[in-house]
Write a structure and sequence with these properties.
With 102 residues, the protein is an alpha+beta fold. The protein contains two helices and five strands. The protein has a five-stranded mixed β-barrel with strand order 1-2-3-5-4.
Length: 102
């Protein structure tokens, strides 16, 4: 039985959409996130919060930031990745990028 031009077109369109989805995801996943806040650590409260240039930021529980904070010290230069806008009160730090010391 021969398929109609319409069904061949739909299969080709579905295959193209699937290919775009599969090949588009790795590029998105490999995207480098730029820190939303950067500065000098002025205080650390366990793995709950840290202060950058005197402003306090809460650390998301279970995030990579909660692990990284154990290797951060007062005076270190860091960049913070947040899960929302800096100005929103419920925003948490999800990642901490440390600047290599010279």
């Amino acid at each position: 039985m021969r398929s109609s031009k319409g069904s061949r077109f739909r299969r080709a369109a579905a295959a193209a959409a699937l290919a775009l989805t599969l090949f588009g995801l790795p590029a998105f996943a490999a995207r480098v996130l730029a820190p939303q806040v950067s500065g000098v650590v002025t205080a650390i409260t366990s793995n709950v919060s840290l202060s950058i240039d005197g402003k306090q930021y809460m650390i998301a529980s279970g995030s990579s930031a909660a692990q990284t904070i154990q290797n951060v010290h007062v005076g270190d230069q860091v960049g913070l990745i947040l899960d929302g806008p800096v100005s929103k009160s419920g925003t948490h730090v999800t990642a901490i990028q440390t600047v290599a010391k010279r």
